[in-house]
Automatic annotation (TrEMBL):
InterPro entries: PTrfase/Anion_transptr (IPR016152), PTS_EIIA_type-2_dom (IPR002178), PTS_SugarTrans_NitroReg (IPR051541)
Name this polypeptide is given: PTS sugar transporter subunit IIA
Organism: Heyndrickxia camelliae
PTS EIIA type-2 domain mapped to chain residues: 6-153
Transmembrane segments annotated in the record for this chain: none
Keywords, sorted A to Z: Sugar transport, Transport
Gene3D superfamilies given in the database record: Mannitol-specific EII, Chain A
Entry annotated with the keyword Transport: yes
Matches recorded under SUPFAM superfamilies: Phoshotransferase/anion transport protein (SSF55804)
Length: 155
């Protein structure tokens, strides 16, 4: 099994997440991940600070996504969590500070320094541009199916 596929867990897949903004998203996700033992109590502050400095919205086709993350010292156990908000959430486009992107899927990356981030990011971006896969991720309700899709793409 590929190192990246082990980062996914069906307990870290949330569909129909109610959020009013990216800050509301970060609040809810930080509590969720801390309760599950994946992140430190400093995670929320760190991920917001990083997002404000280095936006993570991606204007990918067919759907826009975001890949927020923070420094390894805020991660207790490596993970990739997938969140599908009920309504699109506005993030700033990566590489800008004034280009909003309405994202439909959010992948929170909780990586330690040992993972090869460039390789993982390339696999994720390839997945984001695969309309068939993204269509499935946006409608599938069974976490086991979503997990299977993610593992098959990233493996």
């Amino acid at each position: 099994m590929d190192i990246f596929s082990r980062l996914f867990d069906q307990d870290l897949i949330l569909t129909n997440l109610e959020c009013t903004s990216k800050y509301d998203f970060f609040e809810k996700v930080s509590i969720f991940l801390e309760d599950k033992g994946y992140v430190t109590e400093n995670f929320k502050e760190a991920i917001i600070r990083r997002e404000e400095k280095y936006p993570t919205g991606l204007r990918t086709e067919p759907y826009h996504v975001a890949i927020p993350h923070t420094d390894p010292e805020n991660i207790k156990k490596p993970f990739i969590a997938m969140f599908r908000p009920v309504k699109q959430i506005e993030f700033m486009e990566m590489g800008t500070d004034d280009q909003p992107v309405q994202v439909q899927l959010i992948f929170v990356l909780g990586l330690k320094k040992t993972e090869s981030q460039a390789s993982l990011l390339q696999k994720l971006i390839d997945m984001f541009m695969n309309k068939e896969v993204m269509d499935q991720l946006l409608v599938e309700t069974e976490k086991t199916q979503i997990l299977s899709i993610l593992k098959s793409i990233v493996a």
